[in-house]
Amino acid sequence: MAAPTTTHTLVVPAVSMGNVCQLAADLLVVNFAADAASPAARVVSEHVEPAATADALATGKLTGALSTPIEVFPLRRSGAEPAVDTGFGAYGRVSVLQIRSVVLPGHSRALAREVVGWAQAHGYSRVLVLCGASAFNVPYEARVATRAVADRAFAASPDSLAGALAATSLNADRGAEAARRVAPVVPLERELGALDFTGLLKPVLDACAATAGSDKPVAGEALVRYVFEGDNRDDGYALAGAAAAVLGLRIAGSGLVAPFSWRLAAA
């Protein structure tokens, strides 16, 4: 895969609570990739379980297209555009690195270094981690008082996500009052260390931080949605919608389309 000539953002799921981040990544790929059945790259790693499935991202007729553990999909600004857009504002062009397999125990940091190293080698200057974290990270009194859970955006620098987040809220599906609250940008050193069940979130952000001062630095940022285990498809829609808004992706008026495999899982 040729290195891009513009600032390029790699979206990476944290493989965490409720598989919410992988659901969100699937939605981004299905709705914005030029060809969800043909990834631009497949990443081979010894740090995930070997696995393969068919038609993971099909939205209509099943073709038997093979999905492997780690795949990369360049995105378009909207589903109607015929090719990858080259002007995504501050985030440049955008690709999703979907991790569909289970991370082997004790391999999270090695996989994170591998992912960030791959990003460096292919010209990405920013990694945006999508993560589902346990809602039990939020004090019980706060959950009862607000009837909602405060979602977070963790930024590598104080202003890097603030402008984009001004137009969106991860709480939009939790009622009108919650929707009026903009998801706050929280410095990495505050609150992040207290989060549990976040999978690759901290290892990837640490691996990004380790590139500072190199000739190919990669900034690390994250969108985190607090969730409970269960049917987390709604959380996937919310996280994908927030990521799309932050990255300047235009969702069609009919909303995000889910892959056929989601309907099979719910049957």
Which structural traits does this protein have?
267 residues; Rossmann fold; two-stranded antiparallel sheet; 8 helices; 10 strands; 27% helix; 18% strand; disordered N terminus
Report on the structure:
- The protein has 267 residues and is an alpha/beta fold.
- The chain is 27% helix and 18% strand.
- It has a single domain (8-266), classed as 3-Layer(aba) Sandwich (Rossmann fold), CATH 3.40.50.10900.
- It is built from eight helices and ten strands.
- The longest helix has 15 residues, at 233-247.
- The radius of gyration is 17 Å and the shape is globular.
What is the CATH top level name? Alpha Beta
Based on CA atoms alone, the radius of gyration comes out at 17 Å
Backbone shape? globular
Q: For the report, how would you describe the main beta sheet? A: 8 strands, mixed
How many β-strand stretches? Answer: 10
SS content category: alpha/beta
Indicate the percent of residues in helices. Answer: 25-40%
Whole-number mean pLDDT: 77
Question: What is the CATH topology?
Answer: Rossmann fold
List SSEs in N-to-C order: EHEEEEEHEHEHHEHEHH
- Which CATH architecture would you pick? 3-Layer(aba) Sandwich
Number of domains: 1
Q: Write out the strand line-up for the largest beta sheet, numbering strands in chain order.
A: 2-5-6-1-7-10-8-9
Distance between the termini: 38 Å
> Would you identify the CATH H-level superfamily?
PAC-like subunit
Parts with pLDDT < 50 across at least 5 consecutive residues: 1-5, 82-89, 171-183
Strand content: 15-25%
Q: Total number of helical segments?
A: 8
